[in-house]
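seq as requested:
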Amino acid sequence: MCGIIGLFLKDDKLNCNLGSMLSSMLNTMSDRGPDSSGLAIYNCRDIDKIKLTLRSENHQEDFKEIRKGLLQKLKLKFSLREHFNHIVLTVNKKDVDKVESFLKKSFSNLSLMSSGENIEIFKEVGLPKNVIQKFGIHEMDGTHGIGHTRMATESAVTTLGAHPFSTGPDQCLVHNGSLSNHNQLRKKLISEGMEINTENDTEVAASYLSFQIKKGKTLEQSLELALSDLDGFYTFLVGTKDGFGVLRDPISCKPAVMAENDYYVAFGSEYRAFANLPEINHAKIWEPEPATVYFWKH
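struct tokens:
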């Protein structure tokens, strides 16, 4: 049992409240998963730049050395924001390969959480209220976001095993459920060149979608293919640069509910995730249909 939430804002006036709204929703889902928590925040930035969200086990020393290396060794222009043991490093698109190569060679304690024009991912072991406070999620703005609180069933409780999983540019996935064929699918995806770092079945699902997109499929087509290629019980919430998509397996035993009005589209594992959202009394409330792809984008 896990708790997942999502919020897609239609009204730009609410963008400054995205972090606080997501925080309230995820906190409400805390009892569905005490092991780890995470959120993906999407906010509009310079289209000529890429944001790398990075986590370090030795963050105080590493972040200092990253600044020094980018300035003195690579002599690049960049911006860097620290959030506890994560940083959001923004660089010019033309410099991304050089920066990633430098980071991989120089910092063994560093993990890439996400990469893209809009996406930032923050996740850690612990309850949502603690993770939200550590990273200052309440203060963040953006256009849309998704979150997850985990009850581990099939793999270790670690930060890298927490959701969301990002396996492609500006793309991430949170998941409630369990895949029965993830071991076979993991081997196949790795043989096709995909990088998978954990034993978590959700990372396999995220990699599967990224692999299909690399082959030229749209996200909607990739989700439709997942219905035949992924075995098990699942509710997926997929974040992209422009919005998010929802998919439930054909049996749909994992709970899910949606709310939509003129201001936002909201997703929750339970209706109570919506309790503190503005104008929720004027929202259409429904349960997503089985084996049906839903998508909203700006």
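The domain at 45-117 is CATH 3.30.2130.10 (VC0802-like).
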